[in-house]
Amino acid sequence: MLVRIKRGWELPESQATPEGVFLKRRSLLKAVAAGPLLLGAGGLLAACDDGPAQVAEAAEGSDAADPSAGLYPVEQNPRYTLDRPLTEENLATTYNNYYEFGSSKNIWQKAQALPLRPWTVAIDGMVEQPMEIGIDDLLAKMPLEERLYRHRCVEAWSMAVPYSGFPMKALVDLARPLSSARYVKMVTFEDRDVASGQNAAWYPWPYIEGLTLAEATNELAFIATGLYGKPMPKQNGAPLRLAVPWKYGFKHIKGIVRFEFTDQRPVSFWEEIQGSEYGFWANVNPEVSHPRWSQATERVLGVDERVPTLLYNGYGEFVADLYKDLDPVKDRLYI
Ligand SMILES: Nc1nc2c(c(=O)[nH]1)N[C@H]1C(S)=C(S)[C@@H](COP(=O)(O)O)O[C@H]1N2
Ligand SMILES: [Mo]
């Protein structure tokens, strides 16, 4: 079944917070934010249980304080359609992987400690003019749109979400890489005081990911800055994270502070930890097992039965050509 859903709030009520309620809460939170009570409210939120209602309010509370809130929602690009319903917002924003805040799925509250301003993005390495740009200036320059994307974690769970953001190609065009550049290396923020996971010295911080320039300029490569028609929640990678839906989730680096253009293939965080299990390409393929489990099927968040996993996560028509000159086995295209 082809499902075309325009916006998160057009979902049945069982799946999303109705917009009216959302707006009311948001203006309330804005009023609170205007006074010195904000920290107190944050403390209360942190202390409350993880019931769905509290979870929704806390998630909204964090984006009410986001200065980019006025930019969203943005118009949906109808080119990217889903074969399944959108994942419930409460699931996508409370079941996360973000090792900077701990290795469990339940880090959404801890992630609220991340300050989003000032947030400076460095664009450097093999480029005509290295630059540092504040996130709000970057957002103002980039063509924002919404896309419905599937997301497939290497751990065999998946979801389908509406990201807002801009094509990564727009960032590459802004960077004007030299002809010698072949890869983009991306780096996550480092701040042990707010990201307690970064105190775990056995991990090779900061989190790093990389793409070839051909991948980064493929139309599907997207820098996501929003989710469900609102600013990106901190736990999902605010203020900017990568979305390359034909690749396993660990490639989708969150909290990016640097895009470095280089002629050296970057070694990513997970590749450094266990290269035999998490390779550079990490393209989704149901027929190539992870060394410790099958990738044939996936557990869709909120759905009981497992569903078959698709080659390139169903995005082969956009990306298969990128890999036609590589050897699937020798080059380890699929891990
Ligand atoms: N910086 C950073 N980025 C990260 C991760 C991480 O631990 N740190 N986890 C990755 C993994 S394994 C997945 S599946 C996705 C999860 O994104 P989500 O929480 O928005 O679903 O983020 C990816 N990006
Ligand atoms: Mo993942």
TrEMBL record:
InterPro entries associated with the record: OxRdtase_Mopterin-bd_dom (IPR000572), OxRdtase_Mopterin-bd_sf (IPR036374)
Check the UniProt entry and state the signal peptide residues, or none. Answer: none
Q: What class of enzyme is it?
A: oxidoreductase
Q: Annotated Gene Ontology MF terms?
A: oxidoreductase activity
Q: Which UniProt keywords apply?
A: Oxidoreductase
Q: Which residues form a coiled coil?
A: none
Matching entries from SUPFAM superfamilies are given as:
Oxidoreductase molybdopterin-binding domain
- Annotated Oxidoreductase molybdopterin-binding domain residues: 118-270
Record EC number: 1.8.5.-
Q: Name one Pfam family in it.
A: Oxidored_molyb
In terms of superkingdom, the source organism counts as Bacteria
Matches recorded under PANTHER family: PROTEIN-METHIONINE-SULFOXIDE REDUCTASE, PROTEIN-METHIONINE-SULFOXIDE REDUCTASE CATALYTIC SUBUNIT MSRP
- This chain belongs to the protein called Protein-methionine-sulfoxide reductase catalytic subunit MsrP
Source organism:
Pelagibius litoralis
